[in-house]
Amino acid sequence: LKGKIITVVGSGLIGRSWAMLFMSGGYMVKIYDNIPGQASGAITDIRKQIEELQQAKMLRGNLTAAEQLSLLSSHDDLLQALEGAFFVQECVFEDLEAKQSVFHEVENLVTESVILSSSTSCLMPSNVFSRVQNRTRCIISHPVNPPYYVRLVELVPHPETLPAVMDVAYSLMTDVGQAPVRLRKEIDGFALNRVQYAIIAESWRLVQVIMIILKNILTTYPFSGEILNAPSMEDYLQRYSEGIKRVLNTFGPVSDFSGEPADRIIKEICELIPAEQEHLTARRERRDQLLMGLAKLKK
Ligand code: NAD
Question: What sign for the dihedral angle of Cα 115, 192, 152, 235?
């Protein structure tokens, strides 16, 4: 795959991060934004970030900052941006109609084999790709902010996505050093946000009563991370609260924590950490060492 072209559509926070990751793996990256001048502004910002990373010896991949930056170009014209690409990573606003029309437009400008991938945090593949004709090449590659440091990527298929498309996305993500996980089918909120939204919802309920306790349990103030993923807390709520509500409403009744899921979880945990004393002791020692390291960092 190396040396191949990837088009990033939308040059905000996440578009820039994807561009930096793909460049680090030696891919040529073409960034497009529908606001003229926005994509070239993104390049200026990326250049600064990449140079700082090189100075701090934190640059990812085997190429120098200059080599990586030579792979990057900005485009105000979508057709030009898509030329030669084998993979399109969409990173526009979290707005269903915006994404649907972007994919409709993109599909009309690329050949059948090009993979169409969305960064959406919380929209279902069957909705995002509803205006695409050939949905076998559609996939969601959901990153976690900031993707340069958090390697998890959720790969979520549309019901029609071909396994081969999932495989290409998986290889691409692995190739640039991310840690992809494959979801077998679409589910509202995917996996990560279902867990995160459960924490958000319960923190929201409890926030006035026990902020201090929550801080000590979660090691960070509830909601202090969210504002780093959007311009402000108000903006975060405006962008994501509808999705959070929708996902939480799909949670269903509380489990009785028995039966088949319990058997499976017990088996998996026993494989990970055998229940014998020596394994448990080693694991506890490791945990305490890591906590000590964390406490030192906090100091
Ligand atoms: P952002 O507001 O920083 O950037 C969006 C960019 O898209 C802007 O530059 C805008 O000009 C551009 N844009 C809008 N409509 C467009 C169009 N039709 N064609 C081309 N460009 C267009 O948003 P972001 O935080 O980068 O989020 C982008 C996507 O990534 C969203 O779907 C979001 O849910 C997802 N995501 C965000 C985070 C996060 O923490 N911010 C994490 C994972 C996934």
Answer: positive
Q: Are strands 115-118 and 85-90 parallel, antiparallel or unpaired?
A: parallel
Report angle CA 148, 39, 179 to the nearest 5 degrees: 20
pLDDT in tens, 77-104: 999 999 999 999 999 999 999 999 999 9
pLDDT band at 67 (very low <50, low <70, confident <90, very high): very high
Q: Residue 212 above 80 pLDDT?
A: no
Domain ranges of the chain: 5-182, 192-248, 259-298
**Widest pairwise Cα distance in the chain:** 63
Helices (H) and strands (E) in the chain, counts: 11, 8
Does ligand 1 lie within 6 Å of residue 119's CB atom?
Answer: yes
Residue among 124, 159, 115, 126 nearest 142 (CA): 124
Confidence (pTM)? 0.87
| ipTM beyond cut 0.95 | yes
- Whether 15 is in the pocket of ligand 1, judged by its Cβ within 6 Å, is yes
Q: Which helix (H) or strand (E) holds 90?
A: strand 85-90
Contacts of 246 by beta carbon, 8 Å cutoff, 6+ apart: 122, 188, 189
Provide the CATH topology of domain 5-182. Rossmann fold (3.40.50)
d(CA 170, CA 163): 10
- Burial of 248 per CB tally in 10 Å (0-12, 13-18, 19+): middle
The Å distance, Cα 294 to ligand 1 centre, comes to 32
**Could you give the CA distance from residue 61 to residue 176 in angstroms, rounded to a whole number?**
7
Q: Is the CB of 74 under 6 A from ligand 1?
A: no
